[in-house]
């Protein structure tokens, strides 16, 4: 008998109040939700656990750099990545998708958009929150072979 595969998701956010609600949503879709609250813990946990997905606050790391996305991709090449953000500006979400995110969910839309984003990303599709126009974000992403969904 082969061991049962556990679907695990990493949830990384410094805002514990929001994290608890997001954790509850993710528990409906995954066997295990591992919560971390900083970049170093995210990278260490990803390396150790090799999760199916990571749901990460865009502002997790100090500054505006998305270098940690590249590090995460090197540690877990098959990882699906959804970024959470308060920013609905086209330039911010476009940079996030170009950096390697598979999905971009506005924090104000977590209740309605997070689980559809999880489903889409697991089906190898990109996802952008419903408050954002897709044509503003998919023009130059590095995921050209993925189907564009909302």
> Describe the biggest sheet?
7 strands, parallel
- The whole-number mean of residue pLDDT values reads 85
How many domains, as an integer? 1
Named at the architecture level, the CATH assignment is 3-Layer(aba) Sandwich
Task: Please report the number of helical segments.
Answer: 5
DSSP helix fraction: 25-40%
User: What CATH first level would be assigned?
Assistant: Alpha Beta
Strand order of the largest sheet: 2-1-3-4-5-6-7
C-alpha geometry: globular
Succession of helices and strands: EHEHEHEHEHEE
The parts where pLDDT drops under 50 for at least 5 residues are: 140-148
Q: Which structural category do the helix and sheet elements fall into?
A: alpha/beta
In short:
The chain is of the alpha/beta class and 150 residues long.
List the helices and strands and how they pair.
Elements: E1 8-12, H1 16-26, E2 32-36, H2 39-49, E3 53-57, H3 67-75, E4 80-85, H4 90-99, E5 103-106, H5 110-122, E6 125-128, E7 147-149
Parallel strand pairs: 1-2, 1-3, 3-4, 4-5, 5-6, 6-7
Helix pairs in contact: 2-3
Task: Provide structural commentary.
With 150 residues, the chain is of the alpha/beta class. The protein has one domain (8-144): 3-Layer(aba) Sandwich (Rossmann fold). 36% of the residues lie in helices and 21% in strands. It contains five helices and seven strands. It has helices at residues 16-26, 39-49, 67-75, 90-99, 110-122; strands spanning 8-12, 32-36, 53-57, 80-85, 103-106, 125-128, 147-149. Strands 2-1-3-4-5-6-7 form a seven-stranded parallel β-sheet, with helices on both faces. Strand 4 (80-85), helix 4 (90-99) and strand 5 form a beta-alpha-beta unit. Helix 2 packs parallel to helix 3. The chain is globular, with a radius of gyration of 14 Å. It starts with 7 loop residues before the first strand and ends with a strand. Mean pLDDT is 85; it is low at 140-148.
């Amino acid at each position: 008998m082969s061991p049962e595969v556990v679907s695990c998701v990493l949830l990384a956010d410094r805002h514990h109040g929001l994290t608890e609600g997001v954790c509850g949503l993710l528990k409906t879709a995954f066997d295990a939700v591992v919560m971390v609250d900083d970049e170093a813990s995210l990278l260490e946990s990803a390396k150790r656990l090799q999760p199916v997905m990571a749901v990460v606050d865009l502002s997790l790391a100090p500054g505006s750099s998305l270098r940690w996305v590249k590090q995460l991709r090197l540690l877990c090449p098959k990882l699906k990545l959804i970024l959470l953000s308060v920013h609905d500006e086209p330039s911010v979400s476009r940079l996030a998708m170009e950096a390697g995110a598979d999905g971009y969910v506005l924090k104000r839309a977590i209740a309605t958009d997070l689980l559809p984003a999880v489903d889409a990303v697991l089906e190898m599709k990109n996802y952008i929150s419903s408050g954002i126009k897709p044509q503003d974000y998919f023009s130059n992403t590095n995921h050209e072979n993925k189907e564009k969904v909302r």
